[in-house]
Amino acid sequence: MRTIKYIAVHCTASHQSQTIESLRQEFLRKGWVNPGYHYAVAPDGKITQLLDEDKVSNGVKGFNSVSINVAYIGGIDRMGKPADNRTDAQKASLRTLLSMLHKKYPVAVIQGHRDFSTDLNHDGRITSNEYVKACPCFDAKTEYANI
To answer: Membrane spanning segments where (predicted)?
Structure first.
């Protein structure tokens, strides 16, 4: 059994019209044996498990072996810019899924992909100018702090 230290929240960095099948195909095109996420949440709130939790996904380089990766479909606007475009159904399903995962892995820290960035100025905070990625396009640490 893997030791889970993080539950990483992602966006797919796609339009909300992306399908689960096209997401799977994207991972295959990248040459990945395993997908980038354990779970994906569609705009209608449907949660799809893409990979068993005991397997390592490709969500956050350097942290995959100790993470469960969860994504919502979306994260970019019509211009291709980062945007928190989660639907109400996605917000509710993400909270439900993260609550369930945190009960299963109670010591795991819930945070966004961007929160794995390096604290470049060593002030103890990772700020927007230090983000390697905008993903998941909202402050997951704050939003899910009460889970």
So the answer is: none
